[in-house]
Automatic annotation (TrEMBL):
<dbReference type="InterPro" id="IPR053211">
    <property type="entry name" value="DNA_repair-toleration"/>
</dbReference>
<dbReference type="GO" id="GO:0016020">
    <property type="term" value="C:membrane"/>
</dbReference>
<dbReference type="GO" id="GO:0006952">
    <property type="term" value="P:defense response"/>
</dbReference>
<keyword id="KW-0472">Membrane</keyword>
<keyword id="KW-0325">Glycoprotein</keyword>
<dbReference type="InterPro" id="IPR032675">
    <property type="entry name" value="LRR_dom_sf"/>
</dbReference>
<keyword id="KW-0732">Signal</keyword>
<dbReference type="Pfam" id="PF23598">
    <property type="entry name" value="LRR_14"/>
</dbReference>
<keyword id="KW-0677">Repeat</keyword>
<dbReference type="InterPro" id="IPR001611">
    <property type="entry name" value="Leu-rich_rpt"/>
</dbReference>
<keyword id="KW-0812">Transmembrane</keyword>
<dbReference type="GO" id="GO:0051707">
    <property type="term" value="P:response to other organism"/>
</dbReference>
<feature type="domain" description="Disease resistance R13L4/SHOC-2-like LRR">
    <location>
        <begin position="194"/>
        <end position="321"/>
    </location>
</feature>
<dbReference type="InterPro" id="IPR055414">
    <property type="entry name" value="LRR_R13L4/SHOC2-like"/>
</dbReference>
<keyword id="KW-0433">Leucine-rich repeat</keyword>
<protein>
    <recommendedName>
        <fullName>Disease resistance R13L4/SHOC-2-like LRR domain-containing protein</fullName>
    </recommendedName>
</protein>
<dbReference type="Pfam" id="PF00560">
    <property type="entry name" value="LRR_1"/>
</dbReference>
Length: 404
């Protein structure tokens, strides 16, 4: 017999007597402003399959008795004030455990070694806690995994050793941890994946060319790691890709024109220190760009392609801190109001001095009648006289000061 308990408590604690309802199968107490702790008596609910306590004000630790629930399939305690470690035996008896939700608490320590002993785990969300250490070895063999959120913790270990080939995986974010190692070519076999975020770790090596096989991939965030090598040309095969961020790594080479075949791309960030060559004129063919094109802080040379004028829906254009030269395209001052700010650094040798300036879109609109860096520098003081006493002109209003 199944009993569904879904009530509305008002900043009250969970009655320990619920532990006497030994025929209970489903217990939903989410979003009830509950306070206090989880009664250890819950360990007596031998038939319990679903324990949902999310979005309350519960605190303390998850009692060890929860690990005794052999029929447990769903354990959801996210958005509370829990702390301490997860019961070390959780999962060893709950062989049908398919979902664990620990997000947005203050849990610490390692995830239980037997969390996925039954290999039934499909969804795991433990983001925004203080978990540390290596991931459970059994995670690698969980072929049913579809959604993984481990971001904003202190997890460590080799990122590719922790995972295998997960054909059902759709979403994974490991950002904001201490994962190391290289990205295995095996990631290219997770054919249904749509979202990969592994930013802000210590992942090294090259970006595997096999990622170009992920035909359903929409988001690829690998920024703020220690990746090396060039951008694989194969990424141009990702026709559903909308967001690509490879910024703040140690990659080099040129920007492959094959990226311009990503016809769904909305945002591209390649802020590095070592990309070189010229801006591919083919980027102008990506008229669907709506959010950001960031090629700043590289060694890109040549001129700004006039084809960028075709990106009329772009909100952020950042070409600063490169070795660009020549004239500013007229159109930069005539973009639509969708462009929140534009930062275009242009360098030109004039009397053995190198001038660099950042131009916001508002100023560009006023200066669009000037076609060369020399003309801009000669007339810019009309609009921002306070900056004209320094050879390096930094013309950026408050909204973009934090964008570097």
């Amino acid at each position: 017999m199944g009993i569904w308990v879904d009530t509305q408590f008002g900043k009250d604690s969970i009655p320990a007597t619920i532990g006497n309802l030994t025929n209970l199968v489903l217990l939903h107490l989410h979003s009830n402003n509950l306070v206090g702790t989880i009664p250890p008596e819950f360990g007596k609910l031998e038939l319990l399959e679903v324990l949902d306590l999310n979005t309350n004000q519960l605190h303390g630790q998850v009692p060890d008795s929860i690990a005794e629930l052999s029929n447990l399939q769903t354990l959801s305690v996210f958005d509370n004030n829990f702390s301490g470690s997860i019961p070390k035996d959780l999962g060893k008896k709950s062989l049908n455990l398919s979902y664990v939700g620990f997000s947005n608490n203050s849990f610490s320590g390692e995830l239980p070694e037997g969390l996925c002993s039954g290999l039934a785990l499909e969804r795991i969300s433990v983001n925004r806690n203080n978990f540390s250490g290596a991931l459970p070895l059994c995670l690698r063999n969980c072929s049913k995994l579809s959604r993984v959120r481990l971001d904003d913790n202190q997890f460590s270990g080799n990122v590719s050793d922790a995972f295998g080939v997960h054909l059902n995986l759709v979403f994974i974010t490991l950002s904001g941890n201490k994962f190391t190692g290289e990205l295995s070519s095996q990631w290219g076999k997770c054919e249904n994946i749509a979202y990969i975020a592994m930013s802000s770790n210590k992942i090294s090596g090259a970006v595997p060319a096999e990622l170009g096989n992920l035909k359903n991939l929409q988001v690829l965030q690998l920024n703020s790691n220690e990746l090396t090598g060039e951008i694989p040309q194969s990424l141009g095969k990702l026709t559903k890709l909308q967001y690509l961020d490879l910024s703040t790594n140690k990659m080099n080479g040129s920007i492959p024109k094959e990226l311009c075949d990503c016809k769904s791309l909305l945002s591209l960030s390649l802020r590095q220190k070592s990309f070189s060559d010229e801006i591919p004129s083919e980027l102008g063919n990506l008229g669907q760009f709506q959010i950001m094109l960031d090629l700043s802080s590289n060694s890109i040379s040549g001129t700004i392609p006039t084809t960028l004028c075709l990106l009329t829906s772009l909100q952020i254009l950042d070409l600063s801190s490169n070795a660009l030269s020549g004239a500013l395209p007229h159109c930069l001052g005539g973009f639509s109001n969708n462009l929140s700010w534009s930062s275009a650094e242009v360098t030109q040798n004039m009397h053995e001095e190198q001038y660099s300036y950042f131009l916001t879109i508002e100023i560009l609109q006023k200066l669009r009648s000037y076609s060369s860096p020399r003309d801009v520098l000669a007339n810019v003081c009309e609009f921002v006289p306070t900056f004209c006493n320094h050879a390096w002109l930094s013309l950026c209003p408050v909204p973009c000061l934090n964008d570097g």
